[in-house]
TrEMBL record:
This is glutathione transferase. The keyword Translocase does not apply. Residues 1-131 form the GST C-terminal domain. It comes from Eleutherodactylus coqui (Puerto Rican coqui). Belongs to the GST superfamily. Mu family.
Length: 141
């Protein structure tokens, strides 16, 4: 059986967890507890300038997705797992960020509606937050 080892946060491993659940791959998760890191508290200070540039980036993703269901074609690929995670994190950072991009909203909803993903999101194994460790600028606890 595969062992997936990562911190006890969502982090960079989230899309891998989603992929394993989607494919029905049996795995054991080893979660490592993060230590008492210093919380920088600079997240709110950096949030404004970051969010000012976000619509331009999202517009590029929206244009690339176009009218397709998935980013690389007719079938879901690992790229979709990465894009979902990125869009979901940005949606938590700013719940209005996808409002102007209907196709990105639809993609986000379509991904969460996949039966294996929807079922996983209802389990205690699913990690919505924290996204990052304490020392990150933004952890969304």
């Amino acid at each position: 059986m595969m062992i997936l080892g990562y911190w006890d946060i969502r982090g960079l491993c989230h899309s891998l967890r989603l992929l394993l659940e989607y494919t029905g791959t049996h795995y054991e998760e080893k979660r490592y507890v993060t230590g008492d890191g210093e919380c920088t508290g600079r997240g709110e200070q950096l949030k404004g300038p970051y969010l000012e540039k976000l619509p331009t980036v999202l517009a590029r993703y929206s244009q690339f997705l176009g009218k397709k269901n998935w980013f690389v074609g007719d079938k879901i690929t690992f790229a979709d797992f990465l894009m979902y995670d990125m869009l979901d994190q940005h949606n938590m950072l700013d719940p209005t960020c996808l409002q102007k991009f209907k196709n990105l909203q639809d993609f986000h909803s379509r991904f969460e509606a996949l039966p294996a993903i929807a079922a996983y999101m209802k389990t205690p194994r699913f990690i919505k937050t924290p996204i990052n460790n304490r020392m990150a600028f933004w952890a969304n606890k």
